[in-house]
Write a structure and sequence with these properties.
This protein is about 75% helix and about 5% strand. It has helices at about 1-25, 35-60, 80-120, 125-130, 130-140; strands spanning about 60-65, 65-70. It is mostly helical and about 140 residues long. It has a two-stranded antiparallel sheet with strand order 1-2.
Length: about 140
């Protein structure tokens, strides 16, 4: 259904373009020769570009059953298409690896800081594992006891 409506729009645009071109052609009789030649050359270039765009869009849109897919034509199949489809995946994997490495480095730095704080503290490291040490810390926090 949409295909026929796009054809009617395209034919309406073509008709409008033809009417506009005819109207502009009528007015060119009064123009000097060099200007009319430049306009004719510009019209020819515009028609060539229009034909190129029309063929490119026709080859780029393919209908498959009830779905339409946008393709880049037959010349784009090969190594570059494969690289373009794999590149985002490789970037994602590289990003995840970098995040993992930075996370490991940060964790190692935190552990090193804790270890150095324990080793340079006034208490011996064995005091931290003593069951009475936890009671001592609770008693210091709660002065009411």
């Amino acid at each position: 259904m949409k295909h026929s409506s796009s054809n009617s729009i395209s034919s309406t645009q073509d008709q409008f373009g033809q009417k506009l071109a005819a109207r502009l052609s009528q007015s060119t009789d009064a123009l000097p020769h060099d200007i009319s030649e430049r306009l004719r050359a510009a019209r020819m270039q515009a028609l060539d570009r229009y034909k190129q765009v029309k063929t490119v869009t026709a080859s780029a849109l393919q209908s498959n059953g009830g779905a339409a897919t946008l393709t880049f034509g037959e010349e784009d199949r090969g190594l570059w298409r494969w690289v373009a489809s794999i590149a985002p995946l490789l970037a994602l994997v590289a990003g995840l690896v970098v995040i993992q490495m930075l996370g490991n480095d940060n964790r190692a730095k935190e552990l090193a800081e804790i270890d150095s704080a324990i080793l340079t503290d006034d208490l011996p490291p064995a005091a931290y594992t003593d069951p009475g040490f936890a009671q001592f810390l609770k008693a210091r926090r709660d002065p009411a006891q």
